[in-house]
Amino acid sequence: MSFPSDLEISRGAQMRPITEIAAGMGLDLDDLELYGPYKAKVRLSALAKLAGRPDARYVDVTAITPTPLGEGKTTTTVGIGEGFKHLGKRSVIAIRQPSMGPIFGIKGGAAGGGYSQVVPMEDFNLHLTGDIHAIGAAHNLAAAFLDSSLLHGNPLGLDPLTITWKRVVDINDRALREIVIGLGGKENGVPRESGFDITVASEVLAILALCTGIHDLRARIGRCVVGQRTDGSLVTLEDLRVAGAMAALLRDAIKPTLMQTLENTPALVHCGPFANIAHGNSSVLADLIGRKCGDYLITESGFGADMGMEKFMDIKCRVSGMVPDVAVLVATVRALKMHSGHYRVVAGKPLDPRLDSEDLAALHEGMSNLTAQIENVGRFGVPCVVCINRFPADTPAEVAAIQQASLAAGAVAAVPSTHFVDGGAGAVALCAAIAAAAEQPSAFRFLYELDWPLKRKIEAIATGVYGAAAVSYEPAAERKLRLYAERGFGGLPICMAKTHLSLSHDPKLIGRPTGYTLPIRDVNLSAGAGFIYPLCGDMRTMPGLGAHPGGANIDIDADGNVIGLF
Length: 566
Known about the structure:
The chain is an alpha/beta fold.
């Protein structure tokens, strides 16, 4: 008998009314805005109501450097949330809302998988409560204001060649990466080169994920820089007089969405900035609410520990004031074999069948990546528990080898987990290890101080976390670093933009590359989100569809139900 699809499992879920899920968190109807029986927005007024409650233990789920298929990090986050219920503990998970680009592309959705899912999964993956559309509308409103200002005499003196604010759409569409707008005569605007990013690359989403309330959101939007005047001074969205209208469009999107797992434990779903071009974490507001609603709050960071986790620690924790008690590092046998260089994993193509056979030699070679990422967790003074996300073909010898290597590298525990197949029951041992690790004394520390020079902060990440020997800067990057320091932005944290498929800037450098020079080709400012982001190598902010996109499998059946969704 074949294992059911994620959609089939989701459709068999015995969901409880979302009001009951909320009640278990200490929230009542006055704290909610209902979107049908199984989804609700949580009003931010709940923060004041919950303020006197004790804080939950705070757990961040991260991973080794993944294959292009991912290693089950969201599935693990959901499984942990379900697993604590089996231990008699209340848990809340806080995860990102997916972009529809990957859903209709190759990677698929982000609701978890197997018997560790957030439900209803169709709603989760398709629009949910419309937050990403609201973000796109707010972002594109600013773009329309900008081009209108240029047409009507350019009163702000904006140099068109310095404009950095593009338009966005939440679909993979490579044809929109580079475009020319304003063609067809004066009535259609001022002709200039521009382009589209995918919506989840928008600074507006990064702001929404990091703000602590509606007024903080409004202020951050106003600080967004869209370009420069000819004298070098910066033009902001406040200057364009559009920041207030953008904040108005986001009044509902700022509220986290409450859903549930297959085992009826609560899930807060909010925001989803990409971790390779933004900070890759769900919202501060969801975490601030969730930490008051249970014994454990489990969140996840995008991609590997060098990406989302580093930004979680150095950016998100600085904003929220919360620090993690434990980091869970997800690893799989197949990914570690890939890091040996003897196997290739290509998105959209069948896995190499040899990956299902025991290969301890390749596993040991690829273990260097696991070691590096455990050490990266340790740089922040946080206990590391390795979750071995176990697949049916993994042998006892392979699992034992990962456990031994993990403990040798400094992890406090390494536990195989079968939450995909067994739900929360398969994660009980993992949850027990997390609970034990959370009782250890905290020694949290940031990787760098904010008052360090920008280059010193960049190099701390590059040499410490990525293992680079040195950093090189293109002339454009040098100019931008000087400009931002002169304009008073030198005290911002760093949000590195690089590939998620390697510890380095080059996706071909698997395992644990060393001795290389990390190239910084450009540096951009996200003044509203509150970080500087250097670009390492060639980063795409608008993905493209493959020859056989996943969306080709999605349809509606005779009863109007979605089919083909994973």
